């Protein structure tokens, strides 16, 4: 009797193929799902150290400022903020100088980021370096540079400006100029990576369809960069509100005229008016807290927008 021949697969499985690598159905493959992580004592130690540093350097000083400001009661706290005309003027001046400096940097930052990301020209690297200069120069040095430029006695432009009825040092325009210089990089440095990531494709498409430059900016560019722009404005405003060094040099520290809130806090403290100094410091601290909350909200918006754009790109 002849044996029944075995039926074999004419195409043998190549080594490393899916068929050869697939485990038997009755023997499930073992997958290591354990995530590697640091030992418990390492995580606890690092977390405790981070919390300790934040408590000592952030929480305790902030709580101390509010405690000292409110130690004599809410009535005294409110009087320290409202009855001193120099303090009222310092608050108003800060709320004037900071927005004007932010507005100047908003215009400059958008223009600079557009030029850097949309054009290739000689001196582009130098422009980027010059934008970063205020981050590496001491604000006091920047203030002294403005003195050398605009002093009426030794300045390059001061005598000419004075002859034409204009002055920069010890005036509000000088405060705006110094604050603008110190906060110069924030908007531009936030927009450059955002605009490089977006690319010019949508703008070129709108241009090919006959859109004007303003239409492209308002309807294409601005909606794409709005969260990065707002983030840069927030950082710029926070820096402008608390600027001390450059403003200290160019203001002359004239009470009731050129003192911003940080300068007024220092002057009140030097005059041994600690309740007034701490009361005004709480205003700065509150503005910083509001800025921080808005910053966190904008970061969330930026992250969700980036994830939506990435998902849309995957779907395409």
CATH class category label: Mainly Alpha
CATH topology: MetI-like fold
Domain tally: 1
The largest β sheet comes out as: none
CATH superfamily membership, which one?
A: MetI-like
Helix content: over 70%
Structural class: mainly alpha
- Percent of residues in beta strands: under 5%
Your description of this structure?
It is a single chain. The protein is an all-alpha fold. The chain has one domain (about 85-315): Orthogonal Bundle (MetI-like fold). The chain is about 70% helix and about 0% strand. It has helices spanning about 20, 40-70, 75-80, 85-120, 125-135, 140-150, 160-165, 170-180, 185-200, 200-210, 215-240, 245-250, 260-270, 275-315.
Summarize the structure.
The chain has 316 residues and is mostly helical. It has helices at 18-21, 40-69, 74-82, 85-118, 124-136, 139-150, 158-163, 172-182, 185-198, 201-208, 213-241, 245-251, 261-270, 274-315. The chain has a single domain, classed as MetI-like fold.
Strand and helix map with partners:
Layout: H1 18-21, H2 40-69, H3 74-82, H4 85-118, H5 124-136, H6 139-150, H7 158-163, H8 172-182, H9 185-198, H10 201-208, H11 213-241, H12 245-251, H13 261-270, H14 274-315
Helix pairs in contact: 2-14, 3-14, 4-8, 4-9, 4-11, 6-8, 6-12, 8-12, 9-11, 10-11, 11-14, 13-14
């Amino acid at each position: 009797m002849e044996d029944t021949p075995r039926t074999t697969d004419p195409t043998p499985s190549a080594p490393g193929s899916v068929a050869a690598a697939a485990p038997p159905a009755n023997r499930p493959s073992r997958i290591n799902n354990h995530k590697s992580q640091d030992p418990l004592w390492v995580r606890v130690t690092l977390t405790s150290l981070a919390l300790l540093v934040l408590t000592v350097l952030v929480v305790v000083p902030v709580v101390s400022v509010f405690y000292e400001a409110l130690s004599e009661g809410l009535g005294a706290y409110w009087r320290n903020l409202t009855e001193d005309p120099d303090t009222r003027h310092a608050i108003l001046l800060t709320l004037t100088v900071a927005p004007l400096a932010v507005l100047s940097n908003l215009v400059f930052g958008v223009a600079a980021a557009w030029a850097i990301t949309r054009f290739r020209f000689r001196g582009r690297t130098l422009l980027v370096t010059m934008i970063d200069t205020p981050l590496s120069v001491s604000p006091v040095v920047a203030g002294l540079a403005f003195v050398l430029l605009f002093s009426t006695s030794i300045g390059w432009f001061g005598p000419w400006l004075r002859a034409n009825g204009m002055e920069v040092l010890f005036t509000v325009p000088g405060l705006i100029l110094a604050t603008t210089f110190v906060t110069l990089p924030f908007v531009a440095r936030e927009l450059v990576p955002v605009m490089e990531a977006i690319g010019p494709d949508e703008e070129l498409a709108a241009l090919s369809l006959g859109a004007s430059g303003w239409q492209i900016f308002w309807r294409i560019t601005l909606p794409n960069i709005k969260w990065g722009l707002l983030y840069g404005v927030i950082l710029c405003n926070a820096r402008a509100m608390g600027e001390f060094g450059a403003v200290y040099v160019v203001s002359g520290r004239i009470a009731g005229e050129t003192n911003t809130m940080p300068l007024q806090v220092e002057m009140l403290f030097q005059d041994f008016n600690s309740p007034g100094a701490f009361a005004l410091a709480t205003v700065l601290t509150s503005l910083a807290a509001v800025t921080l909350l808005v910053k966190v909200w904008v970061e969330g918006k930026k992250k969700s927008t980036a994830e939506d754009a990435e998902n849309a790109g995957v779907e395409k």
